[in-house]
Amino acid sequence: MTIQLLKTQDIFGPSARYHLARAELGKGRPRHLHGHDFHELLWVQNGVVRHHLPDSREDLTEGALVFAGPLHRHGLEGRAEATLVVSLSLHPEVIADIGRRHPDLAGHFFWSDAPTPIRAHLDSRQLADLNHAALRLERAQARSALELETFLLPLLARLLDEVRALPPNLPLWLAQACAAVQDPVVFRDGAAGLVARTGKAHAHVSRTMRRLLDQSPSEYVNRLRMEFAARRLAGSTDSLPEIATDCGIPNMSHFHKLFRDHHGLTPAGYRRRFQRDLFQP
Question: What does the mean pLDDT of the chain come to?
Fold first, then answer.
């Protein structure tokens, strides 16, 4: 397959530091792969995208993120009706400057030397937040570095936290499910919610997670539930039954046991120790 190269001077205006575009992909296989001397962040807003790489291909579902750099070559193909992608082209000077000022990003996302684009995944709530932020970026009069960083840095900080918590050899299907299950809507269904997001058999998911994460699906989900419960206890006045139900654990004795196993305190004891009244201290 031939390669089409895109140049910075062809995409960016004299003072612009980014270019945002939306496209509905057709179902035809791309005639060529493309590369560029700038960086590109694209995400799947709706549908399924077949992501073609020089030596392989993969299907990306709604919420998938792709970080493509100047060394990467790829192409996109729609695999469902109304497949919509958003592409954000980023000026290389801005990416270089962010990398210099934030050394924690070294080896990740645009600052990785991986031979293929880095992929990540957002749950439905995170995707809605990203699209909302992109609207501001799209409407900005000046395509400035300030506008771009206002959009980009919160996203990178959140993803970096998730990347640090997962091993680099995690298969894409499991990394996407682990990202999706951060959403309370998903983890309320327990291990079944996580497994459903993988599209794999429960036994296969369990074996893979035990080998790579040293946790079962239930253990992984219950940790997320108890972290969510701790944040609610420390930051709200919601009742314990309400918090337990929102975690997907309406059985209060089971909720108390899980919470104490994870935090070493009862839910009420945790609230007494960590809740702070910031309005009337």
Answer: 88
**Which of 12-16, 83-87, 160-164, 240-244 shows the lowest mean pLDDT across its residues?**
160-164
Report CA torsion sign: 160, 164, 167, 169: positive
- Read off the pTM: 0.67
**Side-chain half-sphere CA neighbours of 162 within 13 A:** 24
Say if CB 224 and CB 191 are below 8 A apart.
no
pLDDT tens-place string over residues 76-111: 999 888 899 999 999 999 999 999 999 999 888 899
Q: Which residue has the tokens 């980009």?
A: 152
Q: Apex CA 25: angle with CA 178 and CA 119, to 5°?
A: 25
- Between CA 94 and CA 48 the distance in angstroms is 30
Q: Apex CA 105: angle with CA 64 and CA 136, to 5°?
A: 55
Q: How many CA atoms lie within 13 A of 132 on its CB side?
A: 7
The encoded tokens of residue 279 equal 């309005």
Give me the count of residues in the chain: 281
> Do 12 and 91 meet the contact criterion of CB atoms below 8 Å apart?
yes
The region, left, alpha or beta by phi > 0 then psi within -120 to 50, assigned to residue 63 is: left
